[in-house]
Specification:
Layout (H helix, E strand, L loop, with lengths): L2 H15 L6 E9 L5 E8 L8 E8 L2 E4 L7 E6 L5 E6 L8 E6 L5 E3 L6 E7 L5 E7 L38 E8 L5 E5 L6 E7 L4 E7 L11 E6 L5 E5 L4 E7 L5 E7 L10 E7 L6 E7 L5 E9 L2 E8 L2 E8 L4 E8 L2 E2 L7 E3 L2 E7 L6 E6 L2 E7 L3 H9 L2 E8 L5 E8 L6 E7 L17 H7 L3 E6 L8 H5 L8 H15 L3 E11 L1 H12 L5 E5 L5 H7 L3 H8 L9 H4 L13 E6 L8 H12 L4 E6 L11 H16 L17
Parallel strand pairs: 32-33, 32-34, 34-35, 35-36, 36-37
Antiparallel strand pairs: 1-2, 2-3, 3-4, 5-6, 6-7, 7-8, 9-10, 10-11, 11-12, 13-14, 14-15, 15-16, 17-18, 18-19, 19-20, 21-22, 22-23, 23-24, 25-27, 26-27, 27-28, 28-29, 30-31, 31-33
Helix pairs in contact: 1-2, 1-11, 7-8
Length: 671
C-alpha cells in the first residue's frame, strides 16, 4: 500500500465526515419524549477522524438536532421517565469505558442523581411507575460480544501492574453481569442495590411490573454461556428466582407488560449475542407468584422479530425482517395476533430493525442506501420526520456510491436466494466484489452505506459489489437460518457462487475480475471459497475462521462452533477438519489479504496468521495485517482508513477496475 492510497482514502472519509464535524452524524437508541414532539437519541459526533467519534445524548425536535450533553467521555442511551420529568443516560466521563448512570431533570437539565455501581452499566430502563431505574451491569473485565467488537469491558480502576500474568483456571470468562435497581428518594437521594444473585449471570433484563424483573440469564459469566441461557423472573426485593422458559435455541429481548402479567421473549438460532432475530413467544404469568400460566408462540406472518416493547397491558410493539423488508407491527393479546402497520424496503435501526416503543408512539432511525439517517415517528402506515441528520458529506457519498437494487437468483437446488447489488455508473460488465456478511445468522439490508464503509468506497472506484443473503441468513424464518447449521461452507457456498454466475450471465459482472471479501463468518467464507473455486482474482478475509479446531480451543465462544458445525471438536475429524480452509490451502491460487484485530477474542488473530503461513508455504501471494488496538472488526480511525486503503490496493492490483489482458491471452479457470 502506498502513502498516496492512504491519503486518497483519508480524503474520502474527510469529505464524508468533515462537513458534520461538531454535529451529530449518526443516531442510535431512539426514544420518543412522552409528549410525542421530540426524539432523544445517542448521536455520534466527530471533530476529527479519530476513534469511532464521541457519543452524545441528542434531541431531535422541530426539524433540528440539539446536542444535550458535553464534556469528557461518551454519553449514550437516553431514557425518559414515564412522566417525562426526568432523563437518565449513561456516561464514562470519569473513566474511559466505565459507564455509570446519570439522572437529570428535563426542565432544568440539572443532575438529580449519579448512582455508582461496581461495574460498567450496559443498559438502563425506568420502572413502570417511574420511581426506580433498572441497570444492567457488566463486571470489570467481562467479555464483549462479537457485535460489540469483542475484547472485554474496562478493567477495574486498580488494575494490576502490566507485568502481571493472566491466569486461567476452570471455565473461561471475566466479570459477571448483574441486575441493579436504583430507587429514587427525596432531595436527589438514589440508592443502588444488586437484585440478582451473585451466581446468576444476567445478560439482559427488563421490568416485569414495579416489583420484579425478567431476564435472560445463565449460571456462568463466560460469553459461551449465553448460548444456553434461559428466561427467569426475579422478585423484588428478596431476589427469589422463578424459571420461566428454556429452549434449545437462544433467547433474547425479554420484555414485560406494565403490570408484569405478560412477558415476551424472542427465540432464535443465533450466531452471536445481541444479534437475535426469530420467533416471538408470549408468556402469561400468575399474578400471585409469577409462575407461567400459559406459553404460546405468536404468528408474526413470516417476520423474524428483532425488536419488541409493550405499548400497554395488552399490546406489544414489534419490528423485524421479512425477506428484504423491514416490518413494524403490533401483537394484541385479545386473540387478533399480529397486525402489520408499516413495511418498507428501507430500514429502521442499526444491525437489525429496532424501534423505541412507548405508550406515546414508535420512534426510529430511518435510512437506506440513498437516505441519510432521519429521526422519525411511525404513525400507522406513515412516518413523520422529526429531523434529518443529512449534511453535505452525505451528498458527496451519494454522488460516488452508485445505485443499489435488490437481486434474486436460484441456487443449484432451486432455492431462491436474495441479495443487494451496488453498481457504479455505466454499462456492465463490471469488476465484481462479493461482500459476505457475518453470522452466519445475519443479513444485508438496504441501509446507509450497506452498513459498512467498504461498499461505497469500492463502488466509487468502479467496482460492483454483491451482498448475498445465502441460507443461514435472517429474515426468512428459522428453518432458513438453521439450514446452514451442520453444513456451513456447503449449500450456502453454492448459494453465493450461483449469485456470481447469475450476474455474469446477465452481463453485469466480468468473469475475469471477481473478488471476495467479508468479516467473521464472511471471513471464513471468503477463505473457504478460494479453496473450493479458482475463479476469484483476489480475496480479503477479515477476522476469519480458518481452522475450526484451533478456533474452538482459543475462542471465547467455543459453543458457537459446536452449534454451527454440529460435530465434536475432540474427534479431530469430521466437519472440524472437512470445513476448515486451512485443510485445503494447497488448492488456493487466489492472492489473499487477511486482516484481524489483536484484541479479538471471538475469532482470534491466530486464525488469520495460520492461513497466511499455509498460503505462503503453498506459494500463494498472501499478506496478513494485524491491528494492535482493534477487536472483532476494524472500527476506529485511523486504523479503518489503513484497512480500506489496503483493500482498495489489493483489488486494484489483482483485478483493476479497468480491464487487463492476461499475458497468455487466457481467462481464469472456473470450476
Amino acid at each position: 500500500m502506498t502513502t498516496e492510497r492512504f491519503d486518497e482514502v483519508e480524503q474520502h472519509f474527510l469529505r464524508l465526515h468533515a462537513p458534520a464535524f461538531g454535529s451529530a452524524s449518526a443516531a442510535a437508541d431512539p426514544v420518543l419524549r412522552p409528549d410525542g414532539r421530540a426524539v432523544a437519541f445517542t448521536g455520534t459526533v466527530f471533530t476529527e477522524l479519530a476513534g469511532t467519534g464521541t457519543a452524545r445524548v441528542c434531541l431531535a425536535e422541530g426539524g433540528e438536532v440539539h446536542v444535550l450533553t458535553e464534556g469528557d467521555g461518551h454519553q449514550r442511551m437516553p431514557r425518559y421517565s414515564p412522566d417525562g420529568g426526568l432523563l437518565a443516560y449513561l456516561t464514562d466521563a470519569a473513566r474511559t469505558g466505565d459507564f455509570q448512570a446519570v439522572i437529570t431533570d428535563t426542565a432544568t437539565r440539572s443532575v438529580v442523581a449519579r448512582p455508582r455501581v461496581p461495574g460498567s452499566v450496559e443498559y438502563l430502563e425506568w420502572s413502570p411507575d417511574g420511581t426506580a431505574v433498572l441497570l444492567g451491569v457488566a463486571g470489570y473485565g467481562a467479555d464483549l460480544a462479537g457485535g460489540q467488537g469483542s475484547g472485554t469491558t474496562a478493567g477495574a480502576a486498580d488494575e494490576a501492574p502490566a507485568w502481571t500474568p493472566e491466569v486461567l483456571t476452570g471455565p473461561a470468562g471475566g466479570g459477571w453481569r448483574s441486575a441493579w435497581v436504583v430507587r429514587l428518594g427525596s432531595a436527589g437521594a438514589a440508592e443502588a442495590a444488586q437484585v440478582s444473585a451473585p451466581t446468576t449471570n444476567v445478560w439482559e433484563a427488563s421490568w416485569a411490573g414495579p416489583d420484579a424483573i425478567v431476564c435472560v440469564a445463565s449460571a456462568a459469566p463466560g460469553e459461551e454461556s449465553w448460548y444456553g441461557a434461559d428466561l427467569r423472573r426475579i422478585a423484588l426485593p428478596d431476589g427469589s428466582e422463578t424459571l420461566l422458559y428454556t429452549s434449545d435455541r437462544q433467547l433474547g429481548l425479554p420484555a414485560s407488560s406494565p403490570s408484569g402479567r405478560r412477558t415476551a421473549v424472542v427465540e432464535a438460532i443465533c450466531s452471536d449475542r445481541q444479534v437475535v432475530a426469530g420467533d416471538l413467544v408470549v408468556l402469561t404469568l400468575d399474578t400471585r407468584d409469577g409462575t407461567p400460566v400459559s406459553i404460546r408462540g405468536v404468528d408474526t406472518h413470516g417476520v423474524d422479530v428483532t425488536s419488541t416493547g409493550w405499548i400497554d397491558e395488552d399490546t406489544l410493539g414489534l419490528a423485524g425482517l421479512r425477506g428484504m423488508e423491514t416490518v413494524v407491527g403490533r401483537h394484541t393479546h385479545d386473540g387478533t395476533s399480529f397486525t402489520e402497520s408499516w413495511h418498507s424496503g428501507e430500514t429502521v435501526g442499526g444491525r437489525y430493525p429496532e424501534i423505541g416503543f412507548s405508550a406515546g408512539g414508535f420512534a426510529g432511525v430511518l435510512h437506506s442506501y440513498t437516505r441519510f439517517p432521519e429521526l422519525v415517528v411511525l404513525e400507522g402506515a406513515e412516518t413523520r420526520t422529526i429531523a434529518s441528520l443529512r449534511h453535505p458529506g452525505a451528498d458527496y457519498l451519494t454522488e460516488v456510491a452508485g445505485t443499489v437494487e435488490a437481486v434474486t437468483w436460484s441456487a443449484p437446488d432451486g432455492l431462491r436466494v436474495e441479495g443487494l447489488l451496488c453498481t457504479p455508473g455505466g454499462p456492465g460488465p463490471h469488476p465484481l466484489v462479493v461482500h459476505l456478511h457475518g453470522g452466519p445468522v445475519w443479513s444485508f439490508r438496504n441501509s446507509w452505506s450497506l452498513t459498512f464503509p467498504y461498499t461505497p468506497l469500492l463502488v466509487s472506484q468502479g467496482y460492483a459489489v454483491l451482498h448475498p443473503n445465502p441460507r443461514g441468513s435472517s429474515g426468512r424464518g428459522q428453518p432458513f437460518a438453521e439450514a446452514v447449521f451442520g453444513d456451513m461452507g456447503g449449500a450456502d457456498a453454492h448459494d453465493i457462487l450461483s449469485g456470481v454466475d447469475a450476474l455474469v450471465d446477465r452481463g453485469l459482472a466480468d468473469p475475469d475480475r471477481i473478488g471476495v471479501m467479508g468479516g467473521s463468518y464472511g471471513g471464513f467464507m471468503s477463505a473457504w471459497l478460494i479453496t473450493q473455486d479458482q475463479r476469484f482474482a483476489a480475496a480479503v478475509p477479515m477476522a476469519p475462521v480458518t481452522d475450526w479446531i484451533s478456533q474452538h480451543h482459543t475462542s471465547n465462544i467455543p459453543d458457537f462452533d459446536r452449534l454451527v458445525l454440529r460435530d465434536d471438536p475432540r474427534s479431530f475429524t469430521g466437519r472440524y477438519v472437512e470445513r476448515s480452509p486451512l485443510r485445503f490451502a494447497d488448492r488456493v491460487r487466489t492472492p489473499t489479504l487477511l486482516t484481524a484485530g489483536a484484541l479479538d477474542r471471538c475469532t482470534p488473530p491466530g486464525q488469520a496468521l495460520e492461513f497466511h503461513r499455509a498460503l505462503e508455504e503453498c506459494g500463494v501471494e498472501s499478506s496478513v495485517v494485524i491491528y494492535p488496538q482493534e477487536g472483532h472488526g476494524i472500527r476506529n480511525f485511523p486504523a479503518l482508513i489503513d484497512q480500506c486503503a489496503r483493500i482498495l490496493t489489493w483489488f486494484a492490483r489483482h483485478m483493476p477496475a479497468t480491464p487487463r489482458d492476461h499475458a497468455d491471452g487466457t481467462s481464469r479457470d472456473h470450476h
